[in-house]
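> @MW can you paste both from yesterday?
MW: sure, first one:
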Amino acid sequence: YVEIIENKCEGMIRARDIKDDYYVFDEKAYALIGEVSKKHYTLGDEVWIRVKNTDLIKRHLDFELVK
């Protein structure tokens, strides 16, 4: 999940939607780690996102990772 700091909106980025590698969740480190690149995203990291989908009825936001 990600949170937009300015307005406190929260939404989700699915690991399968991060296209630069195949990411697996490491429970001990609480991080997504790329199998090839070894790039990791940990809780609290700042990332750039873009809105991918909205569902106003369910009040869901889906984001995609920009960088």
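MW: second:
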Amino acid sequence: MLCKKLLAASFLALIFSTAAGALRLDLQAIASGLDDVVGIANAGDDRLFLVSREGRILILRGGQILDRPYLDIRDRVLYTGEPESEQGLLSVAFHPDYTTNGFLYVTYVNPQGDSVIARYTVNGPNPDTASKGSERILLTVPQPGPNHNVNHLAFGPDGYLYVASGEGGYQPEPRCSGQETNHLLGKLLRLDVDQNVDQAPYHGIPFDNPFVGPGDPRDEIWALGLRNPWRFAFDPAGNMFIADVGQSRRDEIDFQPAASGGGENYGFKMMEGFFCRGSSANCSMPIPPCNSPLYTPPILDNGHDSRHCALIGGYVYRGSQIPQLAGRYLTGDFCGATSMVYRQGSTWMREELENDLPELVTFGEDNLGELYVVAGGTLSKIVGVGINPPPEPCVVDANTLCLNQGRFRVRANWRDFENQTGAAHRVPLGSDDSGMLWFFVDDNWEVLVKVIDACSANDHYWVFAAATTNVEYTLEVFDSQTGALKRYANPLGKAAPAITDTLAFDTCP
């Protein structure tokens, strides 16, 4: 999964909302309380299979989660529940001939901390359970750290099993795993699971894998130069999209055409998106320099801000219910952003959607090509697209500040120790980008707010605030141009520290 990040000082709760002017996804909530679910798969029928990190696969049928798990291997899965860990059961894929052979493939982290790729078989008498005792281990990949593991697998249109492997764990100076070809970290693997079906190693190597031959590179490698590829997917034409989470600057979307023979090097750790990191530290051998033709650049990348911190790959929509999404590749972000990617002529385009879905961890696809998403522990189905109404202009009144040429509406609400509540009042003093609010006495302001145009500095509007109170309050800053809303909350009894949000609004000018 993805490490949770503090977005502001510890007292602050930042809540992002939808904006206006672009498309939004319409979501139908199906189930909540799924905080450990990190994967969704289908077996070609009307069921959805939910992968829960603690070591269970759950079945969703008819909008209900069955009481009995499809597979329970908690006793062989390392899962601590700590937010900084990405260990656990992480992915499932069903064999293209699942209805005949009953094979499914999973990846999990074992008690030794290593990644395991294993096969299980469905219970013959009960199609809603798999046999725990049927496990056959295809590969065990040593892991140097608790995150960036082998985290996703899926069958390609060629019938081979593709496996995404992270580079082994975050550290200040990244590992060189993606460039080192004597192991399987930081790679995309390609396995033939129809070889050696009844004997170890329960898979073989496709004859046309790009590095087949004696010695290194490892025969399993299909592509290299990845950091933490959190989900890949094939479109109906057989093209592959890979969402790779960068170190600290850029996340990227890599594209592999259907006609590819493999062997692409996506550049990490020398490259991070289109950014040249220029470092070969920790590398056991020389690696190509920045922008070398030996690297395959991404089709798109993005920087990190309050809504973009860890890219989550989705699917190219192939369903029938939402024609506006036809052929679009949907992506999300752990920090809330959602977008769709498409090609216009020879140019790749990314359109940011209005939805903000914090703690988005995975998309899923059912047997009809309709899409699902898990965010904040809630599983939702994408049922349509729409456009939010335009935001209302800011109008100054007794409880409202309008700052920065009237663009930003500022309001606050409070609750005191006697559980009394109220709306803050505007102090009739201030400047274009700053103002004050009072709660109890009109000549004693409680909150000073500034919304600063810093577009020339970092392409954002900044929100600064200071308070002289320890009551509970929520400060709302609303951008009447885009419809974006930020909330800053202070708990009761806490001496409110300063708010310094230099990534508050990312729409300039």
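> thanks! The two ends are 35 Å apart (CA to CA).
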